[in-house]
Amino acid sequence: MSKKSRGGGGGAAAGEDPEDLSRSPLQAVLLADSFTLKFRPITLERPKVLLPLVNVPMIEYTLSWLESAGVEECFVFCCAHAQQVKEHLGKAGWTGKPAAREMTVTAVESHDAISAGDALRVMYGRGVIHGDFVLISGDTISNMNLKDALQEHKDRRKKDPLAVMTMVIKHSKPSILTNQTRLGNDEIVMAIDPETKELLYYEDRADVSNLYVTIDKDILASNPTLQLRNNMEDCYIDICSPEVLSLFTDNFDYQHLRRHFVKGLLVDDIMGYKIYTHEIRSSYAARIDNFRSYDTVSKDIIQRWTYPMVPDVLSFGDRQEIKLHRQGIYKASDVTLSHCAQIGANSVVGNGTSVGENCKVSNSVIGQGCNIGKNVLIHGSYIWDNVTIEDGCKVSNSLVCDGVHLGAGAIVEPGCILSFKVEVGKNVVVPAYSKVALLPQPSNEDSDEELEYADTNSGVTDSPPFSSMRSADHPTVSDDDDLEASETGTCGVVGYVWENVDAGIQEEWRQSIAPIPKDKLEELQHAASFDDDDDGSEDDFKNRPTVLDQDDDSDVSAVEDDDYSKFEKEVEETFQRALDGIHQDNLILEINALRLSYSLQHADCAGALFHSVMRSALVAAQSTNGNLLKTTAEALGKWKDLLRNYTKSVDEEMEILLKFEEMCQENTKEFSPLFSKILPYLYDKEVVSEDAILRWAEEKENADESDKVFVKQSEAFIQWLKEAEEEDEEEE
Amino acid sequence: MDFQVVVLAGGTSEKLSPLVSKDVPKALLPVANRPVLSYVLDLLEASDLKDIIVVVEGQEAARLVGAWASSAYLDRLLVEVVAVPEDIGTAGALRAISKRLTANDVLVISGDLVTDVLPGAVAATHRRNGAAVTALLCSVPISGPSDAASSGGKDKAKKPTRLNIVGLDITRQFLLHIVSGTDVEKDVRVYKRKIRAVGEMEIRSDLMDAHLYAFKRTTLQNILEEKESYRSIRLEVLPYLVRSQLKSSSSGGEGTTVDETGDATVPSNSHLQCLSQHRILAPSAFKKDLLSSGGTYRCCVYIATKSKYCHRLNSIQAYCDINRDVVGDASHLSGYSFSAQNNIIHPTSVLGSKTTIGPQCMLAEGSQLGDKCSVKRSVIGRHCRIGSNVKIVNSVVMNHVVIEDGCHIQGSVICNNVQLQERAVLKDCQVGAGYIVTASSEHKAESLSKKVERF
Questions:
Q1: Is B71 within 8 Å of B210 (Cβ atoms)?
Q2: What is one GO cellular-component annotation here (chain A) (predicted)?
């Protein structure tokens, strides 16, 4: 038993179960493609996982964490910009040189995957996953200890092989005003069993119009206690059993990990697969899903919540060492700082960057090789590598990519995204929330290189739609008329200004780097107080749900009635055709088929068929009573076999009697005087038995007078039947 | 304590016939040989709640209850028995006596409650939280929920029947959501804003509303006045309070949105927030905060621990269960001291030779048993005359019952003055007062009673 494992963290998690000889190495599937469009336009040129987060590509955080958490084998699934990802993996020493790392990294490339579901299907096809694995996206930052979660997962699996997945969740209370978490994600409503931690209900992207969370009664029946929580955040770190991959392969419509897979499993109670949650309390885990989370997570990293995933510990490639100074200021070794430049708290300045006189940098990250002139104000922004910012510029709460050039006096307002190599002219004001790139906004045709499945489908507005292409037709944009009119007018912006959706402007602030503007908050607050008033009036509507329910109920019964009358009509039509000479057996078949399609009872058929027979008799007989009686007798005689086919039990015979009665009272009153004459005939032809007639009479005994008309009419006959019965008994 | 207690003692419930009759209203139905109402009254006395109004439906029933209470609790409690018309519902009964309520808080107890949860604890919780209403919730008793037990046991085995669905906050102090009545079997719909406000809500379906509520008097009176159509506390008044508890007062409009501190992003007028933050604030601050804002109220719960006994006598099945429990598992409730054989045999009772009284039995004063009788897990009342070779298992025999030789009684309830002639066999039957069961007759799962002259 060689307890000596390959490395500290790895050994801890891996060497847990010595008696389990068939133990396969802990594997991980890292999706190096988020299958969303939220980081456009930047992701047109570089995959999201390679975007620098506090000067280190995101995927480095994820891989380092996986390695430290004891994962031995990691499969990096690349799709968009696969070449760049592979190159990076090689350059950073993950692939290529064997034994350089404790974790082997294998790149898996596919170009036609458009969703996480596709990616997992590809992984299944490769057949490389043998045991439990960690499913994670390449943009997840964490320092949690996987050991506990893995152990929990394994223990559960031993007891219940249907527990296929453990989701890692973390406390995070969404703001009451915006209903999103600090990562900019929409609130999630989950129902969790407090004892077993089983996930029972999951609702993300909570539909605002839906005021209620509806928990199926069956869930409550099997779980007397459950917690409904919306103060949890999904970390998108999943510990999965190998079955998960085959589930994705079996269900081709599973695309999104949460919206399809998780919901699919929760709704499907045939297979009975279960998902459990693992709550982390002290450790960190977050996924960068949008620009706001990019901002939030960057700040968390700078403030060392993610330790040891922090800039001065995480070593990456050829980057120079970064040192932490007081007040959370990180500086690389050869930074050129002017004496009167102020670097404020919680800022990072990368290698080879020079900052000019009287600059003020606060809460910002500046990459390598940047050149920042004099009197520049940078606040809450992310400046990537090799950016030139000339004198007197002002950048606040924005993201500036590699090689951007800001002319002197340019002002970048909050929430802007300046993609690679964009040039902003002198004294140009880039308005808030603009996205500028050198590449045009793709149209529908050329958009398939990085297609987001879920977003385009669910029609949510915060991803740029492909339809609104207004400004993309103008390659060189300086076309803010107001701008030109107002100032210099000579220079503008080199690049395409990407359009947002019409409603996008309103929604843009939700997931932008810039903090939520005050006026928005006030607006929301007003809305909330209005809501409060609504809330009050909820009481006045309090009966509404129940009233609605009642409506529903009555609708249902109305529908049923309706169904029955339709059925009756169809039976009559079928019967009409029978009159034209269809064989009786076929008729029975057809009626049975009708019964099944309307999902009605056998007795209903008897009633409907009887109705049809009587109608035919009525049609045949034109006028006089005598004639009607005759035709009725004829019709009954002709169709008695058919009717008998449906009158196997007393119930069905009763149904015929009741139907007859109903007909006499309602639509075909012609029969009513003949009731007592037809009844013995029915008896003679053995369509209805004496049992049925007697029971019918008995049931009517307590009915209203009006209901008893026909019983009275045929009293003599019933009396006769009774006496006959008694005689029978006496004979016995 | 400035608490007034209202005991809703019911009248002559149809549901419990033939046990309940004109002579024995529900409140006086004997449980282990003392009226069920005495359990509630003793409990109140133990909590030092002495100002009690007992509301009885029907004049005649009220007279009987009054006569009993004044003799039994003379000098111990201040019991006032009030008669209200029949079938006006629990809320209706409260409305009828609304004018008599003067104390700050009112404790409303159902008279058929047999429990060892002290009402004083509920009252104290109510006061501590400054709540508008505090409801007592109990775990569903082990012997099966009494409401459902009578409705056939075939689905009982599969899933536990639910009596209420309640939503609690994380501290399990506040009642955020309640579903009762027929809606229980539907899907649960929770208003999202509530979840948002508290972050985490616990939905439980294994708790039972024990029909013990502490109300703030003014709130209660307002609701009874405003909502004239409300008939039931459990189905209407309480859900209404829970629904509207968090709505902000009408005064909290636009004027209060600007906070004194100026930069606070949390609106001060929303009580949802107050609730969500109450864990951070000191309890006292929380209370002050809410009380000062006015116009709103909070609904709280007192959850009895699992070990507490709590059962309502509202069905025949429940009657049998409670009788069995009070002399059995929950014997501390009976107030008697049990013998070494775990039973109570009154010294004045007479036992024939070879007659055995098993454990968890009670035999009251003056009863006589003949030879070779066997009594197991049963309660036998006063002055019964029981012949020889009689077997009584799992049954309740009330007072002055005559049981002749060779009778077998199992799982049945025999009311006062019944006569069982020789070798009658009863299984799962209820025999109404004064009925005579003929010799050698066999009855199974029947309800036997004298024909009542009704028109």
A1: no
A2: cytosol
